Amino acid sequence: MRIGIISTVGDYSWAGSEEMWKLFAIEALRRGHSIAAMLQTPIAQSEEVAEFRVLGGVVFAYKPLNRVTSRAVRRGWYSRFRRFKRWHPEVVCVSGPPATSYRDRDLYRFLRAHTGGRVFIIQGNAEWYVTGQAERDALRALYRSARRIICVSRDNAELLQRQLTSTLPITILPNPIRTRLERPLPWPGDSEQVQFATVGRYDVGSKCQDRVLQALGTSQWKERNWRLDLFGSGPDERYLQDVIRYFGLEDRVTLRGFERDFMKIWMDHHVHILISRGEGLALALIESMFCGRPAVITRTGGNHELLRDDKDGFVSAGEDPEIIREVLERAWLNRQTWSEMGEAAFQRANEWIPSDLPVRLFQSICDSEY
């Protein structure tokens, strides 16, 4: 079978959302199928696709639309998907947020004209991801015609069906972990200083790092012995540096950049702070839990389905800085339970993420008839 994959994620050299399509693609290549992936240029150039290429995967690179190309697309003069179409995929799998398949008009036209199977991997959803009646109507028709829609959490699936007021052909499968640990990492050595970490792209509209910094910028928190390292990359790096200075946290908070090896992060850090407005099921959370680290999260996407409040970590009711401060205070007062919570987090993640996920993913996309 000839299977084409389109990732709509851009602006990053790699993102956790890419792990699922990559897992499926490698499984399909090993089974003898032909796979082509159309990826935005930074991801197409990433070393993360090296194994995909070695196994015979074809990569098409493309750029996001700009003012000129958007105008040409609207008038039907230009499409980024012509080369991909000439590859003649029998099944097309689109990975990304739910509305991009409509908002990128050349992608929308390509999908509507495609006569083979269509599969969608929804990597995250939030109330504002789908807006306007025209968008809802178009996406409803597109998704109802899908061979399969894969959502990474129950929350995302239920929200998508409400947004489109339609029952859809959905399968729920969690994001994969790159390296499955057999046991949690040792708890960081006895240090009086608490080491927090946040792992996620520098994108405050989604990941709320600025609100976390505001919550930690009080005199009470400045009297405590802690550090926070922010791991990631993204468009808001300069803004976050400014926020750190604004709240006087230069000696407490450091932007550490992207770290490929998640175990290096969690060898030295105690707690994962992952506050977000829009999520699927964060791969970064799965990784920190596998390492045996509790987390502070919001009730967003599948994160609160995986992590149980007061068992594997702490769940915040929202992302307002005052609410974040309350849950961080609760976590701080329960420091003596963090190691025990980390053990519970490992067990929870180990039970939650199926060991045969590549096979389940392949079967969901390729083996079922709808």
Task: Write up what this structure looks like.
Helices cover 41% and strands 18% of the residues. It is of the alpha/beta class and 370 residues long. The chain has 2 domains: 2-176 and 354-367, Rossmann fold; 194-352, Rossmann fold, CATH 3.40.50. The chain has a 7-stranded parallel β-sheet. A 6-stranded parallel β-sheet has the order 10-9-8-11-12-13, sandwiched between helices. α1 crosses α19 (357-367) and α11 packs across α17 (321-333).
Features:
41% helix; six-stranded parallel beta sheet; Rossmann fold; seven-stranded parallel beta sheet; 19 helices; 370 residues; globular; alpha/beta
Strand order of the largest sheet: 3-2-1-4-5-6-7
Question: Proportion of β residues?
Answer: 15-25%
Say which CATH homologous superfamily of the largest domain is assigned. Answer: Glycogen Phosphorylase B
Under the CATH scheme, the architecture of the largest domain is: 3-Layer(aba) Sandwich
| Helix run count | 19
Overall pLDDT confidence: 92
Structural class: alpha/beta
Low-confidence residue ranges: none
**CATH classification class of the largest domain:** Alpha Beta
Rough outline: globular
Largest sheet: 7 strands, parallel
Radius of gyration over C-alpha positions, nearest whole angstrom: 21 Å
